[in-house]
From TrEMBL:
UniProt keyword terms in alphabetical order: Magnesium, Membrane, Metal-binding, Transmembrane, Transmembrane helix
GO biological process, one term: phospholipid translocation
Membrane topology of this protein: Multi-pass membrane protein
Location within or outside the cell: Membrane
Name of this chain's protein: P-type ATPase C-terminal domain-containing protein
GO molecular function, one term: ATPase-coupled intramembrane lipid transporter activity
Domain P-type ATPase C-terminal: 98-300
Lineage: Eukaryota, Cryptophyceae, Cryptomonadales, Cryptomonadaceae, Cryptomonas
A single cellular component GO annotation: plasma membrane
The organism of origin for this protein: Cryptomonas curvata
Amino acid sequence: DAAAGKAAGQDRALLIAGGSLAQLQEKDPDSLLRLCGVCGVVICARCAPIQKSGVVRFIADRLGVVTLAVGDGGNDVPMIQSAHVGIGIMGNEGTQAAQSADYAVGEFRLLRRLVAVHGRYCLLRITTLIKLVLYKNVMFCIPQILFNAYTLFSSSSIYNSWIILGFNAIFTDGPMLVLAVFEKDIVPELITRYPQAYDIAEAKESLSLGSIAAWQLLSAWQGCMIVIVAANLYGRDGSGEDGRDRSLDVLGMLVAEVAVTTVLFTAALCTRHWTVVNHVLQWGCLLAFYVALLLLDSLFCPEPGE
């Protein structure tokens, strides 16, 4: 019934003048909200600048929604600044609206592409970046937490300090940053033809509690598995199957190797639009890590007798 009512409301429009709008807002705001709720379009005509901004704040406060305001003149500046997202159009009325807005476009026809295409891509990129950044840092910290518990919280670090320094700065940030700049899932022409794709992306890529919890559970599970595998390969008594001593650095490098490789391949699996920059940073970071690993191995883990 709610869906049918919403669909029916798309065929209705409300046109209200500034004077009537002010009276309804003052005397019966609930009726105004109900009236707006059953209409697909609400047009407020002959409104003063303060009324325009008042409508935006009224909708945002009473409905708790994110608002977007579009204007092309100086009298639209208060409205643009009152909205969560303000878009100014540079036209015959000057550039005041564009200068006070979050985004500016040269013509009204570009608004569709700005919101539907670039807005959708921005949603996709930011949510994916946030999830991956949280995921990789939790997964990298889990082995350290378990190692501290195993060593009775001796404050020893399982990782070499150079690996800790390079994990976020060099080895894993490149693919995620380029993903946040170039990521796409469908072509722009398809989005402009079917604006409903924005709603689909918003529902799929939202930073809901369940979505974040799923990523954190994945990172915690992978972190635990890394420790279990590394501990079995390393040996509980600090020596391998051949009886030779294994230093703490060997264990730390083994854990770091699996962790960094897992993070990079997870980022690769999340990438849907591959460019030359993606390939260079994705495989370049992996190569840089293994080069650094070889250097650290020669410095901190010499062979017996050396």
